[in-house]
Amino acid sequence: MANTAVASDLSTFDPWLGKTREDGDCASPVTVRRVAALLNRSEPHGDPGEHVPAHWYFALFTPSEPQSSIGIDGHPRTGDFLPPIALPRRMFAGRRVSFHQALRAGEPVVRRSRIQSITPKRGRSGEMCFVTVRHEISGPRGLLVTEEQDIVYRDAPAPNCAAPPAATTGAEALSGSGEFSMTFTPDPVLLFRYSAITFNAHRIHYDLAYARDVEGYPERVVNGGLTTLMLWEFVANRTSRPITASQSRNARALFVNRPVTLRADVAPDGKRARAVALDADGELALRLELELGAA
What we know:
The chain contains five helices and twelve strands. It has helices at about 30-40, 170-175, 190-200, 210-215, 225-240; strands at about 20-25, 50, 90-100, 105, 110-125, 125-140, 140-155, 180-185, 245-250, 260-265, 270-280, 285-290.
């Protein structure tokens, strides 16, 4: 179906509200080893039955649409499972995830997905539409992960449009200076490897001319999922506790070859944490509220 419906015409999307689909996959040894390599980890190795951190689920259920179904932005065209929203820019706005059990390498899993809501809005940057998709990932041992993703579709940028002000600054993002922090600089190779693992062909992550001249960004955009993954790993490694739940909200884009600071505070009981990613100017790009399991 053509990508022609305007976001304000909500009745057009009635056939998509509540729509479902089901996909199968497994945490294959190759996938596990590639994620470990991306994160500079020596394990897990992907041996059959080996426990894999539940938050590595991001590498499962990668897109499998044929090349003929890919749109100009590199995403699969909408109108099949996702509604046919005629707004050219598409990004993650946030997600809410519960991790019920660790994954196991080689174990078959099923993801059941449902369109929860379709909400048109109008903001400073023009027309927008938010689509919330709920996923439930299960295996032979029962429910493993539940996730709600908020996807935002946006108007093309106006010429010479300034970036919106940050929702909050880094100084306001956490109470105090943060219990621990680190800085890394995402480079094109890191973005490529993450996009390769997730089979994400969105051109804003690797095509500088497209990102700059078509979607109006100053540089290639760091995958929102990659930033979330880096924060999950950062907190899990520093606390030696598994993440059992996560709520995230994306505030602004991060760009390649510009330093990103990760900061986190952990509650005195060790069961909760807050984490943020700050851009090169110290402005908030991503905020997470986390629940942690036993060490």
